[in-house]
Amino acid sequence: MNKMIIIDDEPLARSIVKEYLQKYPELELAAECNDGFDGLKAIQQHQPDLIFLDIQMPKINGFELLELIDQPPAVIFTTAFDEYAIKAFEAHAIDYLLKPFSQERFDKAIQKWKDTGSSKKNTDELLETASQSPAQSERIVVKNGSKIKIIPIQEVFYLEAADDYVKVHTREGSFLKNKTMNHFEKTLDPNQFVRSHRSYIVNIQQITRIDPYEKENHVAILRSGGKVPVSKTGYMKLRTVLGL
Amino acid sequence: MSSSPLKDNKFRIAFAIGWLVLIIMQAGVLHYWFELSWIEAITDSALSNLFLLLACLLVINTLRYYMPRREKYLHVIFWCLLLTGLWLTLNNWLLPLVLQRSAGYALFMDQSLAVRFCFAFVVMGSNTLISILWYNWEEQKEQKQRKTDTEQLSKEAELFKLRQQLQPHFLFNSLNSINALIGTRPQEARKMVQQLSDFLRGTLKKEEHQWVSLQEELQYLQLYLDIEKVRFANRLTTVIRSDEITQQMKLPALLLQPIVENAIKFGLYDTTGDAIIRITANAEENNLVMRVENPFDAETASPQKGTGFGLSSVQRRLYLLFARNDLLSTEIKENIFITTVKIPPHE
Predict the structure, then answer these.
(1) Which of residues 35-64 of A touch B (CB under 8 A)?
(2) Which of B237-248 are b and which e, b meaning 16 or more Cβ less than 10 Å from the residue's Cβ?
(3) How far apart are CA B54 and CA B135, in angstroms?
(4) What's the N-to-C CA distance of chain A in angstroms?
(5) Min Cα–Cα distance to chain A from B230, Å
């Protein structure tokens, strides 16, 4: 018996998946969720083998939801129209169903899942591509214990590399996100966020002044009183962006 | 190609009268001052001015096809001098032939050569100058027209693009809902196909610059809201208020829709609880004031920055229509987002 979860904010969209699933008595529907928060809880609780996941949802979207799970289950995306999502799917071959879809197309997706065992191996790359969509660069979704925190990008003071994670520093403290510095450097607005150092990306809105530090280095003093190291190349970049 | 000044009726009349006056004046001067006989005076004046007129027409026509560039004005003076010279030679040869009986006339002809040349050059020169000014003005007019045409085109394209933003998502999701209803509730599926068709037809039919009554626009929005009610089951409630006066007031087609779409996006798509969308119409002075209220999720949305919430396209459209930036305003009361748009009367 395999467990499934459907995560979609529209009741009728869930009901069509349920209807198509009737053909497969060996697949058990463990839960139906209508937003990303519920979805996350249900995934942690039921440990499903496969989820049907919509992209655009209240609270957090489908991609943000996956980012928060350490070991995501196999995913079949269901979405109506989202050019960034479709680009991500096409690039990374995880199966996706474009609404409205037929029973035949649905059967094919199930067959593909059964054949490959799971399609989760490409999830990381998929998320990397998908997170270039505008919505994804406006906020960062992090897990804070059992709670989910949504940080609007302008509230970020600076980002700091921390082993395999990135530490997101805000007024309310710092949070860990399992992404790379390169990822943030690529997706964040380069006019607002500058990689001042190999291990630091700073929000230039937060800088009050830049002081010299040791031989050739500098340090950026933030409004919050925090200090961010600035390397030689980082200093050049900051000067360009700040127009000095 | 610029049109010739001779195509203009008023110019033609003025041009003819001008030449007639010139002929009469010259004949009068010749008769009373230089004591030529009437026949001599009139023949001289008529013939010499007729040739001059032909030369001037030649200049007007040539300039129509060949306009001198700024640095070539010297050439123009040269051509005027040459034409005047040719004209004088023709006069000098032909007039004595026509009026051969009078020996006094031949003498007068010789003596007046220099004066005739100067006079003809002045006439020719002013004629050329006026033609050049005319054609320049025509060209500028054409350029201006082209510019407004292009601007109009790009404006229409821009408006069209602004309208296209939320449609595909809505359309495919609605089709998906219909697909789900067909199996279980075919009657409702049929109804929704009807609503969706009416809605899409309305979108196609309406032109951006068309003005419609509020009543018509609200009926159209009702179709859209009814479809959303089917998609989201019982979550959506709408309250629409307008009286008889505001119902008959006019507003640009499809102006309200993006505002309501925006309210639906933040109030319904991005929230989880029940959503009440309120649309209220009021008449203030001559303006129609529409107020759209929607709830929003303070946890995930940050509407505090400016007009935010994707209303910039509405702002842009209002600017294109009325050249004003103060017609759209937004405010937040607790967890309700309020959009107010003031629509001035149609000119």
Answers:
(1) 35, 56, 58-60
(2) ebeeebeeebee
(3) 19
(4) 64
(5) 9
Q: What is the ipTM of this complex?
A: 0.78
Scan for tokens 């060209």, then name that residue: B139
B178 contacts in A (CB within 8 Å)? 100
Is residue A204 within 8 A of residue A241, CB to CB? The reply is yes
Q: Which superfamily does CATH assign the domain made up of A2-130 to?
A: Response regulator (3.40.50.2300)
Angle of helix B38-65 versus helix B113-163 axis, rounded to 10: 30
Pick from A236, A154, A152, A139: which is nearest to A197 by CA? A236
Domain positions in chain A are: 2-130, 138-242
pTM of the model: 0.67
In order of their start, the domains of chain B are 5-152 (no CATH), 164-343 (3.30.565.10)
Chain A contact present for B21, CB below 8 A:
no
Q: Return the amino acid letter for B75.
A: H
- What are the pLDDT tens digits along chain B (347 aa)? 567 777 788 888 988 999 999 999 988 988 888 888 888 888 888 888 888 899 888 888 888 887 777 667 788 888 888 989 998 888 888 887 887 766 677 777 778 888 888 988 898 889 888 888 888 888 888 888 888 877 777 776 666 665 665 578 889 999 999 999 998 899 999 999 999 999 888 877 766 668 889 999 999 899 999 999 999 988 999 999 999 999 999 998 878 888 998 899 889 988 888 999 999 999 998 899 999 999 988 877 655 444 444 687 788 778 877 888 899 998 999 889 999 999 999 87
